[in-house]
Design a protein that fits this description.
The protein is of the alpha+beta class. The protein has two helices and five strands; from the N terminus they run αβββαββ. The protein has one domain (about 1-115): 2-Layer Sandwich (Translation Initiation Factor IF3). The termini are far apart.
């Protein structure tokens, strides 16, 4: 019984958030907190652009983490600034609810773009 309680406590405190970046084309970084436009679909972008990075953002899965798709997108914005992006396009997103192993999590696959 003690082992189960320890396991539950451990699972509620672990589950790190992560943001992975795959740079496709180098650009100078923008300042921290730069404004980043967010698009839900490539068709919404009305300007010519190039994809400069792919960003994979995942929220933490602990009791205390925000586990929404918007939180995953917000976590990706600083990385978009670091790669010099003007905007991001959310390619896909997913949210998983609470289960025995997790308090849930959200993920977003994102294209960082630079206007031409």
């Amino acid at each position: 019984m003690k082992a189960i309680a320890v396991s539950v406590l451990f699972l509620s405190l672990t589950g790190c958030a992560s943001v992975g970046v795959q740079v496709m084309k180098q650009h100078p970084a923008k300042p921290v907190g730069c404004p980043i436009e967010v698009y839900a679909d490539e068709k919404d972008v009305k300007r010519d652009y190039e994809t400069i990075a792919l960003i994979d953002s995942k929220t933490g899965s602990t009791l205390f983490d925000k586990k929404t798709v918007s939180a995953a997108i917000d976590m990706a914005k600083p990385k978009a600034c670091q790669v010099g992006a003007d905007a991001i396009i959310v390619v896909s997103s997913d949210r998983r609810g609470v289960n025995l192993a997790s308090y849930g999590e959200a993920k977003a696959m994102i294209k960082a773009i630079k206007y031409k």
